[in-house]
Amino acid sequence: MARRGGYRPEGLVVIGEAETEAAAAPDEGAADGGAAPGAGDGAGDGAGATVARGTGWGWREWGRWGWRQLTSMRVALLLLMLLAIAAVPGAVLPQRLQDAAGVAQYFTDHPSLAPWLDRFSLFDVYTSPWFAAIYLLLFISLVGCIVPRAFEHARVLRQPPPRAPRRFTRFPAHTAFASGLPLDDAVAQARRGLRGYRLREESVGSGDARVVSISGERGYLREVGNIVFHLALVGLLVSMAYGSLVHYRGQVIIVEGETFANSRLAYDSFDTGAWFDEDSLGDFRLRLDSFHAVFLPNGQADDFRADVAVIDADGAERPASIKVNEPLRVGGASVYLMGNGYAPKIQVHDAAGKLAFSATVPFIPTSNTSYVSHGVVKVADTSTGTQIGLNGWFLPAAQIIDDGAFADSTAPTPDDPALLLEVWSGDLGLDLGVPQNVYQLDTSRMTQSVREIDDGAGSTTTAPVRVEVRPGETVDLPDGLGTVTFESLPRFVGLDLRYDPTLGWVLGFALAAIVGLTGSLFLPRRRVFVRLGLDPRGRTVGTAAALARGDDPGLARELQRVTGWARTAPRTAATDTASTAATTAATADEESS
Amino acid sequence: MTGQLSLYFVTFALTAYLISAVSFAIDLTRRAPVRPTRARSLVGVGAGGADEAAAGGSLGRDAGIDVVVDAADAGSTSDPVPGAVSRRAAGIGMSTFLAGTALLLAGVVTRGIAAGRVPWANMYEFTLMSVLVASVVFLAIQRRTDVRYLGTFLAGLAVLFLFLALTVLYLDPASVQPALQNYWLVIHVSIATSAVGLSTVGAVTSALQLVKDRYESRGTQPRAAWGRRIVASLPAPESLERLAYRINAVAFVMWTFTLVSGAIWAEHAWGRFWGWDAKEVWTFVTWVIYAAYLHARATRGWEGRRAAWFSVAGFLSIIVNYWIINQFANSLHGYSGLG
User: Fold this and answer.
1) Spans of all domains in chain B
2) Least CB–CB distance from B63: residue in A7, A172, A571
3) Which helix (H) or strand (E) holds A285?
4) Of A336, A338, A335, A361, which is closest to residue A255 (Cα–Cα)?
C-alpha cells in the first residue's frame, strides 16, 4: 500500500497512507483495513522487496529497484546494525588517532597479526573506507526516505483530514452515545469537543435521515519532529565533515612570562584540514602571566588556572584565564588548557667558562600526582666545540638516595625542587638535517659521563653520573665539561588551539535532533471520527472512533474527552440499531454518490 | 562519618532488595494456576481475530464501559487471573522493594554529603544511581499498572549490582579531578545513569516478552512446574512489548541527550566534541542499537520478537560499556578510580 519505505521509528499504524485509500477506495474491506492497526501496513517497506524481478530489466529498472531497496526500512535497519558492529573494533583495538603508542605496542606484541589487521584499516576504523561506506549508505538511505516523506507531509498539511470510514468497530477505540440535543447543536458540540483538531465535516441525506460525519486530526508535529530529527542528523554529518576540512589544531607549550603569536610556525605541532585557509589563523598573541595549581593532600589535582594576556593585532591587551573546563575563545579559535608542568630556567657554561646556554626548559610530567618530570637540555653552541646534552628529571619535592641512583618526588608542589641530570658529550646530531624531538636526546654520537663504584667486593662497576642541582645553585659538570646553573623555576602550560567554525552548527543540529526526536516519539498523532444522526424516535445518536499513530496510551482517554459533552447511551438494542441505521444510511448515500 | 553511614544504608538496601527478590520469586512461582489451554488456544489464531473477539465480548458484556478498547491496545499489563491466588508474597516483595529503594536513596544522599559533591562521579556511585533510577521507574510504573511480575528480576539485578558495587567498585568518598568539576557532571552523568536505569527495566521487560512469546508461539510449556507458573503469570507478549517500548523510547531520548551533553562537555574539557574515545564509541554503539530497535518495531517482519532482541542487545552493550570499557580500555572516561 505504501509506495515508499518509511523512517517510522514509532508506528505500526500508518495514517498518512491509510488516508488516501480510505478516501479513494469505496470497498469497505479496504477502507477498514487501511485504518485498523491489525490489518494496516506496518512499515510499508514491502514495496521494494515485492517488486517482481521480471526478465529483461534494463539499467533503469535495476536502478529503480536498487534505490527502493536502499531507501527501504529493512536496508536502513541492516545498515544501522552494520554501523553498530563496525564501530566495535575501534573500541577494542588501539586506534592511531587516539593512541598511536598503543598501536605501536600492539605491533610489537602481535607481529604477525597486526599487519593483517592494519590491512583492513582496523587501527584507523573511523577513517577507514568501509566505515565511511556504511555511514554514507545509511545517510543516503535516510535522505532518500525522509525527503519524499517531508514532501508527502507538506501535502498532508495542506489537506483536510480524510473522510470518516463506514465502520468504527474495528478501530482501537470506539464508542456510541446518545444526546438530548438537536442534531445541529450536537454537531456544534462535537466540533467544540474537537478543538485543536483539524476538521472535515460531511453531511449526507436530509431531514431525519441526515447523517453528519466529522473527521478530526491533530499532532502533525509528530511527523514534523520525525523529519526534523532525521534532517538534523544529516546537518550534523555535513557540518562535521565541513569542520574537519577547514579546521586547524595546534599544540603549544608556553612558559610563564613568554608570549605566543598565533602563526603556523609558533606551534609545536600543527595539523589542518584539506581546505584550511591561512587567513583563519586569528591575528592575536597570548602571554602566560602566571599559572596556578591547587592539589589535594594526596597529590590529586584539584584546580588549574592559567592567567594570560590576550594581545590583539593593534596591541591592545586584555587579561583572561583558561581553566580545564573553561576554554578561552579568541580570534575564532578556542584555547584549551591541556597540560602543565615545570620549566626550570637553566644556564650552562662550557669548559672555557663561556655562557653556552640559557633558557627555560619544559620538563614533561610523567606522573599526575608526583610530577616527576622528564626533560632534555641540548647545549649546541659551546666555544670548545664539544656539544653537551643533559638528560634528566625534575623533582618538585625531591627525594634523592645514593647520589641519584634512586629518586622520587613526594608531592606535585615545589616543596623541595631539584634537577637530576645525566651528562652526555659529543655531537648532538642537530646538523644532520633530520628533524629532532626536542624532548629526546639522540645519544648515538655522544658519550655518557660515568663514575666508578666500588661494589665493596674489591671490583668496581660504572654508573652514570647524575648531577643534582637545586634552585640558585651552580654545579660542576663531570669530565670538566663546564657548569650548570638552576636559575629559577617558572611553570609552563600546554595549550591546545582549535579552530572549527562549524561548532555552533553542530550544536544547533544536535539540539534540533533532540527536540525533533522528542516530538516524534511523544507528541500524539490522533484521528477522531464522530458520526451523528437521528434514531427512529428522533433522538440524536452518535458513534465515535479514535485512531493513533504509533503507541498512544492516552487514546481511549482522549476519545472519552472529546465525546464528554454527550451522555453515553445505554447499550440497548435500540441504540445499537440506531447507530447501525445511521451508519447504513451514510453508507447507502456514499455508494449512491 | 557520613561516608560510613552511607555504606550502612547501601548494605541495608541490598538486604531489603534480597528479601524483595525472594518474595517476588515466591509470588511468581505460586500465584498463577497452570492453564495449559490458554497457550494452546492462542496458537494458530491470528492476533486480529483474538482482539476482535475480545472487543466484541466486552461490548456486549460491560455496558458500563464508555470507551471500548481493543485488547491489544489497552495498554493493560495486568494479571491474567486477578485475585485468583493470594498475593501476600508480592505484598512483602513490594514493601521490601520500597524500603530498599528508600534506603538506597538515603545511601546516595549521605554519600553526596560525605563527598561534598553530587554522588555520581565514580563507578561505585554510578552503580548506586542506576539501581536507584531503575527502582524508581519500576515503582512509578507500578502505580499505574500492575507490573509486580518484574519485581523479582529487578530486585535480583539490584542485589547483583549493589553487591558488585560494594565488593569490587567501592571507593571512599573524595572530591574529583579538575576535568570533572563542572556543572556538566551534574547534567551529563545523571542523565547517563538514569538512561542505564531505564534501559535495565526496558531490557528485563523485553526479555520476559521473549520468554512468553517463545512458549506461546510454540504452544509448549517449560518442563518444571515453577517455570510453567512463571510463564503463566506473565502478561501477553503484546502487552510486554508495549511496556518495553514506552520505557525504551524514553531511554533512547536520554541516550541521545547523554551523547549530546557529553559532546558539549568534551568540547569544553578536551577540546573536541567527538574523538572516538572507547567510551564514546560504546555509547554510540548503544545509541545505534536503540535506534535500530525503534526502526525494527516499524519494519514488517521485525516488529515484536526481533525488535525485542535489540532491546536486550542494547542493554548488553551498556553492560559491556560499563563493566569492561570503564575498567580496561585506555579511555579518557577512565573514572572508575580503581588502580
Assistant:
1) 2-43+85-328
2) A571
3) strand A284-295
4) A361
Q: Which of A6, A518, A571 sits opposite B298 (nearest CB)?
A: A6
ipTM of the complex as predicted: 0.83
C-alpha Rg value of chain A to the nearest Å? 39
Report yes or no: B275 at the A interface, CB cutoff 8 Å.
Answer: yes
Q: What are the cell numbers at A146?
A: 525522509
Distance CA A190, CA A212 (A): 10
- pTM here is 0.82
Burial environment of residue A434 by CB neighbours within 10 A (0 to 12, 13 to 18, 19 or more): exposed
Q: What is residue A23's predicted lDDT score, i.e. its pLDDT?
A: 34
Q: Which residues pair with A248 in a beta bridge?
A: A272, A499
pLDDT digit string (tens) for A562-572? 888 886 554 44
**B115-153 burial code (b ≥16 CB/10 A, e <16):** bebbbbbbbbbbbbbbbbbbbbbbeebbeeebbbbbbbb
Assess whether pLDDT exceeds 60 at residue B210.
Answer: yes
From the centroid of its chain, how far is CA B318? Answer: 12
Longest distance between any two alpha carbons in chain A, whole Å = 129
Query: Cα torsion for A260, A261, A264, A265, to the nearest 10°?
Result: -70
* CA-based nearest residue in chain A for residue B266: A325
**SS3 for A472-532, per residue?**
CCEEECHHHCEEEEEEECCEEEEEEEEECCCHHHHHHHHHHHHHHHHHHHHCCCEEEEEEE
Q: How far is CA A30 from the centre of its chain?
A: 45
Instruction: Inform me whether the C-beta atom of residue B263 falls under 8 Å from chain A C-beta atoms.
Output: yes
Q: Identity (one letter) of the amino acid at B255?
A: W
Reply yes or no on whether the pLDDT at B88 is more than 50: yes
Tell me whether residues B295 and A240 touch, CB distance under 8 A: no
Closest to B66 (Cβ–Cβ): which among A39, A175, A518?
A: A175
Average pLDDT for residues A543-562, to the nearest whole number?
A: 89
Cell of B125: 556511585
- Span B104-129, pLDDT tens digits: 999 999 999 998 888 988 889 999 99
